[in-house]
Design a protein that fits this description.
Elements (H helix, E strand, L loop, with lengths): L4 E5 L6 E6 L12 H10 L6 E7 L4 H13 L4 E10 L1 H6 L4 E4 L4 E4 L10 H26 L3 H9 L2 E4 H7 L4 E2 L9 H4 L4 E2 L2 H9 L17 H6 L7
Helix pairs in contact: 1-2
């Protein structure tokens, strides 16, 4: 199992730190009893407050949903620290933080979900309806954390919105900025505009992260159309 997470425990203080790096559930999560169970076992193997460092372009929305729910259900305080990027599915996980902190150079990105569908016009309509429901479910996490209206959140997702640390704090996606000392800079000057990228720029950047095929691996058989409908994932696979 290729884990995208790693727990580190300070033996002296007993503090536990979780590192989420890279694509979420790059190999397996959907219809997998092993990976989700392993993550849950490790999360609940101890108690007390935990710190989670996130640097991830996102991944599978089903995995993100389960991790989000596990963290929300955890009895201790959950401090999320974003040191690189928390994009797409990773931003959903970040919303489970009791406190969300971002490095001054970090970025958060939210956008609409993406899936692959094959079939006639009826199949396409089913895929569209399903994506609409997935978007609504993702918006629930953003709404609970930020208090922003669903209309505003929906527009931000449509626009593929990138947020720097200051903008994320302004909009409620984050609660504070890491390493920030006392500053004489007026608050209105700190609230910079969010980063906005075109769909093509974002897509091309994330496509570059697709794993390259390896010659020693066998080619998997094509997945049936009805199965493809189930395998929802966000754009940064």
């Amino acid at each position: 199992m290729n884990k995208f997470w790693n727990w580190v425990k300070d033996e002296e203080s007993g503090t536990r730190t979780l590192y989420l790096d890279g694509t979420i559930a790059e190999e397996s999560w959907f219809d997998d009893d092993v990976t989700p169970a392993a993550f849950k076992d490790e999360l609940f193997s101890g108690d007390g407050d935990v710190t989670i460092w996130i640097n991830s372009p996102g991944g599978d929305c089903v995995a993100a949903s389960q991790i989000y729910s596990m963290l929300m259900d955890y009895r201790g305080s959950v401090t999320v620290k974003i040191d690189g990027i928390a994009a797409s599915a990773a931003s959903v996980i970040a919303m489970a933080g009791t406190k969300v902190l971002m490095a001054p150079t970090a970025l958060m990105m939210i956008h609409n979900p993406l899936t692959v569908a094959i079939g006639d016009s009826e199949e396409m309509q089913k895929a569209i309806a399903m994506l609409d429901e997935v978007k609504e479910s993702i918006m629930n996490a953003y709404e609970i954390k930020t208090g922003q209206s669903r209309t505003k959140i929906s527009h931000m997702m449509d626009a593929e919105t990138w947020l720097n640390a200051n903008k994320a704090v302004e909009l409620g996606f984050a609660d504070g900025i890491l390493f920030k000392g006392e500053s004489d800079t007026p608050p209105d000057l700190l609230l910079e505009n969010s980063f906005m990228f075109s769909r093509r720029a974002v897509t091309n950047s994330l496509l570059d992260k697709l794993p390259k095929a390896k010659s020693h691996k066998s080619v998997k058989p094509p997945v049936p159309a009805d199965e493809l409908e189930k395998r929802l994932s966000l754009i940064q696979h």
